[in-house]
From TrEMBL:
InterPro entries: COX6B-like (IPR048280), CX6/COA6-like_sf (IPR036549), Cyt_c_oxidase_su6B (IPR003213)
Sorted UniProt keywords: Disulfide bond, Membrane, Mitochondrion, Mitochondrion inner membrane
Gene3D superfamilies per UniProt: Cytochrome c oxidase, subunit VIb
Designated name of the protein: Cytochrome c oxidase subunit 6B2
Main location as per UniProt: mitochondrion
SUPFAM superfamilies: Cytochrome c oxidase subunit h
Region (Disordered): 1-23
Source organism superkingdom: Eukaryota
GO cellular component: mitochondrial crista; mitochondrion; respiratory chain complex IV
Recorded topology in the membrane: Peripheral membrane protein
Involved pathway(s): Energy metabolism; oxidative phosphorylation
């Protein structure tokens, strides 16, 4: 879609994600957490439908640019162990 192409273009031209009005404050914890969940939800749905999950990559780029890799690894481990504090 045009909006996902716009977001991809914005991410390729910046080292940090563009402003997201859902998260207007400097504390980016919710932004990272939401994009992490959105990415995993998106890939789960796309795989279930037998479709390419590349449209989900925008969310992955956002959370990777905002959060330390050690925290992301912990969340990934929690998903695998079934202990992640959120619905995927």
């Amino acid at each position: 879609s045009a909006s996902s192409q716009d977001r991809e273009s914005a991410m390729s031209n910046h080292s940090t994600p563009p402003f997201d009005p859902r998260f207007p404050y400097q504390n980016l914890t919710r932004n990272c957490y939401q994009n992490f969940r959105d990415f995993h939800r998106c890939t789960k749905i796309m795989k279930r439908r037998g479709k390419d999950s590349s449209p989900c990559d925008y969310c992955r780029k956002v959370y990777h640019s905002l959060w330390p890799l050690s925290w992301l690894q912990r969340w990934t481990d929690q998903i695998r162990e079934g202990t992640f504090p959120g619905k995927i």
